[in-house]
Request: fold
Amino acid sequence: MPERPVETGDDMRAMAPLLVFALALPCAAQVSDVKDRVRRDALDAALVLTSPYAAGVPIVLASVPPESASPSVEAWTVFREDGKGDRVVVYTQSSVFICASRHTPVHTNPYICLLKLASIIVHEAWHFRNGPDEAGAYEAQLQFLEVRGGGSAAKIAEGVRRARDRVKAQNKQAGDEARRRYREPPH
Reply:
C-alpha cells in the first residue's frame, strides 16, 4: 500500500476555503428553511383568525412587491384577464407581517399584529371574490374587526377607517377631475 504524503500547512490552507464553503451551504439552507417556516407559521396563525372569511382563497407569500405598489403595501390581489381573482399575495417585508412573524419577548403584543394581518387578508379575500371595489373590501375588513371586538380590534379599525376615507377622497377627486376634463355634470 503506497504511503500517503504528509500534508503541509500550505495544503491545509488551500483546502480551508473549500471546507468553509462546504460548511456554509447547509447553514444557509437551514436559515432559509427556518425563515420560510416562521413566515408560514405567521400566515397560518393569521388565517386561523380569518376563518371563515378567507376560506378557499389561494394565498401566497412574496418578499418583493409589484412595481406599481405603494410604499406601504401589505398585500394585494392578482386578477386574471377575465377580471376574476387569481390569488391573494401577502407581502412578507411589510411592517405588519414582520411584526406578526416575530415570536420574541421583545415584541409587546404579537396578537395585535396577527389581528391586523388577518384583517388585511379579509380585505384582500373580499377583492378576490368581488373585484377591485375598495368600499366593499374596507367594509368587509371593518365587519371582521367588529366581530373580533375588544380594544385591539377597535384600534385597528380606526386605522382602517382612516385608510378607507383616504381612498374615498382620492376616488372622489379623480372622478371630479375626470368630469371636469370631459365636462360632464357631477352626479
